[in-house]
Write a structure and sequence with these properties.
The chain is mostly beta strands. The chain has one domain. It contains one helix and ten strands. It is elongated, with a radius of gyration of 15 Å.
Length: 147
């Protein structure tokens, strides 16, 4: 077991008003709560989450921690989109899944060794709305973060 960090850097957000919603924000989901929210019109959204990497008996890896969602062997981190009502209530309307088992092997090795790894991606889909559903690996650039 080792603890690493995943830094998610989102560019090209869809705006604070999009797809019929106003005061749009995006955050990272910790268990059931959406935290570290930022407005949908910021230049860049950065989320930093601790991830515990566990080597399983069958040779595969699992990812754990308060931000790791899903079943063993198929964990992911949610980026959750919502509208903030006048009373401050966050009402989620979309989520994007950053699937941890799809991290390239050399980057996953660094994460398992305790490094901070970075995932860079655009957060607007091809229709101009918030990126949602399972994010294809081709849309994410993974690197080992340099201090």
């Amino acid at each position: 077991m080792a603890n690493g960090t995943v830094r998610i850097v989102g560019h090209h957000l869809p705006g604070a008003e999009c797809v019929g919603h106003r005061n749009v924000q995006v955050g990272v989901q910790r268990r059931r709560e959406v935290v570290d929210r930022v407005r949908g019109d910021v230049e860049e959204a950065v989320f930093t989450v601790p991830i515990e990497v566990v080597d399983r008996a069958d040779g595969s890896r699992d990812y754990r921690g308060p931000f790791a969602q899903g079943r063993p062997g198929d964990r992911f981190v949610y980026l959750s989109w919502g509208e903030v009502a006048d009373d401050g209530t966050f009402v989620m309307f979309r989520r994007a899944k950053l699937r941890l088992p799809l991290i390239p092997a050399s980057i996953a090795d660094a994460l398992a060794g305790g490094a901070t790894v970075q995932a860079e991606l655009d957060l607007t889909d091809s229709y101009g709305g918030p990126l949602c559903a399972s994010i294809p690996p081709a849309l994410i650039t993974w690197t080992v973060a340099r201090c």
